[in-house]
Structure formats: C-alpha cells, structure tokens
Amino acid sequence: MVVPIEWREDKLRILDQRELPYREAYIDIYTPYQLAEAIKSMAIRGAPLLGVAAAWGVYLSIAKESETDREAFFKALFTGAELIKNSRPTAINIANAVNRALEVAVRMTKEPLGVIKDGIYETARKIQEENVAQCLAIAEAGVNLIKNNNKVLTICNTGRLATGAIGTALGILFLAYQRGVKFSVFVSETRPLLQGSRITAWELQREGIPVTLITDNMVGYAMKKGMIDIVIVGADRITANGDTANKIGTYTLAILAHNHKIPFYVAAPSTSFDLTLSSGDEIPIEERSPDEIRFLMGKLVAPRDIPVWNPAFDVTPVKYITGIITEKGIIEAPSKAKIKDFLTG
User: Fold this and answer.
1) Annotated catalytic residue: which of 16, 28, 69, 236?
2) Which of 25, 55, 115, 320 is deepest in the core (most CB within 10 A)?
3) H-run or E-run covering 292
4) Which residues is 332 bridged to in the sheet?
C-alpha cells in the first residue's frame, strides 16, 4: 500500500503526488520551510492529509532547536507555525492542526523545552491517529448510501492519498466494495491539475473498483442520460451554515445534480468545519499560478501571454447539499442549527 505521509526518525517523508500515476517518488522534509513549499506546490495535498502534515510541521519547527535557549525556541516555533498556516488558505485543517499544536506549547510554556518538544510530537502523532479513525468512521457512516448497481460520481481526490487513511468520499466507496456492494464510479478529470484522472482513477483501479473517466464538461450530459445515481465529494472547509468549499468544479456538479434530482453528499471530518464563518462568502479562496492552465502536463496549450483566472476552489451553497457525512454520522438537509448540534452535542 502506498503511504502518503510517514514520520521517520528526524524527518517527515511524503509521497510526491505531482508524479502520480507515472512513478512513486518520495520527498524527505526536514524543516517547516520545506514543508510549506511542498504544500504550496501540491507535492502533498488533500485537506485531512494537510492537517496531519501541518501538525508534524510544527514539530519540525523546533525538533532540532536547543533545549536551553527559550527565546530562540519559541521564535522558531511561532515562525514555523505561521509559515505552515499560511501555505494554503482554503483548507481549514491546516490552521486547526497548527493551532492545536501551538495550544499545547502555550499550555506547557513553563515546562522544560524538552518536555514541550515531546508534547508537540505527541500531539502530531495523535492528530495522525485521530485522522485514521475519523476517516474510517466517515466510511462507516456513509457506506449504506451505496447500493447495488449504483453509478457514483466524484471529483478530485478524497482517498488514501488525500487523507493518509481509508479516505473520506472515496473511503465510503472502498468500504462498500469491501463489503460486496456492486457499483461503478465515474470520475471527472478535475482540471487544471487532473487529480481525478491522475490520482482517483488510479486509486480506484488499484482497488479493483469499476471506474470510468470523464472530462469535467461531460457531467451534465452524463446526468441527463441517467448515468449518475449519486454524487459524493470531499470538502476543504465547511462553514457554520453548511456552505462548502471544495475543488473547483464542485459547485457545477452540485447545481447539475440538483437540476437532475440526484443526491449530492459531502464527506468530511469535523476538522474541516469552520464555525467561525457564517457562510461560504467568507471562505478565503486560493488563486493559483496562471501556468497551471496555460500548460497541461508540461505542454503549452494556450497563448503564452493569455490572461488566466485560476481559483483552486469554489463554494457550494448548502441548499444544494443533500447531506454531510462526518465521523459522527450524516447531517441530513444541513442547517446552522443541525451542524452546531451535531458537532457540539
């Protein structure tokens, strides 16, 4: 099994997902600066996995710091943490993990620096363990949505390589297949970086699940022809009212599903919720390099100087979401009150 993230003695080893599916290459990360660059360049990606990586990144910030110079130690800690937190703005899992690690350090401020190091290390390890449990619980919560002969549509990548666990949306499909449900999957290629075709299609094929690849602009026609029974996607941030940021193109899928009366589900851990934001209008949307669209797999496919708009995510209004699948169960017909009760109850 491919392992997308692993702590090894004095370094964080990550799978370079830019190289998939052509080869499996790994990068050894020793500093928060290296990790921030890996996150920005999408060598490592997927909101839950980014949360795990961010926690380890905080530990990397102080792993080699002297245990006698408190001022230098805390400067390195907060500098590294801020660097990682700002690496990608949309996925709230990054900030949640960084803040959790920092809270441990602040709570232990008067302890010996070696003890604080151990505390941050244990926090990162615990976040990684919790992520595995959360993803499995999401899969259990959503597995009964998949019926025999269903044709499932998904976008981007939400499997093991996006989570370091069974997955969120794809985790549901993996578990259903393991339990003998006979279904097939349509994957939209997910322009501009092709996470659907490069990674999701690859993961599903490795599991033996029947999968068909389509371009993003084929989805509406596929739905019109009755080729899709249910849509399940992931999430990078979910606001208090249930609006959801996910890979660009998800909003289009949601509108099309709504128009064709097809159930549209979001699968995400509680760490992807941001109850400080009242609606999706407040979610910061990352905009990436124009060359991601001007070029396709290293080949120029547009005029070199053409202006480009390249948002990495869009926001799906809650009115288009049938339910949100979490480790605590499914929030049907999500609302602000239901989400608050579900997460805090």
Assistant:
1) 236
2) 55
3) helix 291-294
4) 323
- Structural contact between residues 100 and 127, judged by C-beta atoms closer than 8 angstroms: yes
Residue position matching structure tokens 């590294």: 80
How does DSSP classify residue 59? H
How many whole angstroms separate alpha carbon 190 and alpha carbon 40?
18
Matching CATH number, 143-344, of 3.40.50.10470, 3.90.1150.10, 2.60.40.10, 3.40.50.1100 = 3.40.50.10470
Cβ distance 151 to 231 under 8 Å? no
pLDDT score at 181: 98
Phi, psi of 252 (to 5 degrees): -60, -45
Phi, psi (deg, nearest 5) at residue 315: -120, 125
Fold of 5-137: Four Helix Bundle (Hemerythrin (Met), subunit A) (1.20.120)
Per DSSP, helices labelled H in 63-200 are 70-85, 92-107, 113-142, 160-163, 169-178, 195
* Whole-structure pTM value: 0.96
Q: How is residue 287 annotated by DSSP? A: B
**Contacts with 84 (C-beta within 8 Å, 6 or more apart), sequence order:** 32, 35, 36, 39, 54, 57, 58, 61, 94, 98
Q: How far apart are CA 15 and CA 266, in angstroms?
A: 26
The set of residues, in sequence order, having a beta carbon less than 8 Å from that of 110 and lying 6+ positions away, is: none
Q: Which two tokens stand for residue 311?
A: 């948002």
pLDDT, tens digit (0-9, with 9 covering 90-100), for 292-335 = 999 998 999 999 999 999 999 999 999 999 999 999 999 999 99
Angle (nearest 5°) at CA 168 between 217 and 281: 60
In order of 55, 74, 150, 151, 229, the CA distances from 219 in angstroms are 37, 50, 16, 13, 12
Query: In this structure, are residues 52 and 131 in contact, taking their beta carbons and an 8 Å threshold?
Result: yes
Active site residue 236: yes
pLDDT at 43: 98
Q: Is 254 helix (H, G, I), strand (E, B) or coil?
A: helix
Picking from 189, 59, 61, 201, the residue whose alpha carbon sits closest to that of residue 118 is 59
- H-helix or E-strand containing 185? strand 184-188
318, two tokens: 């809650």
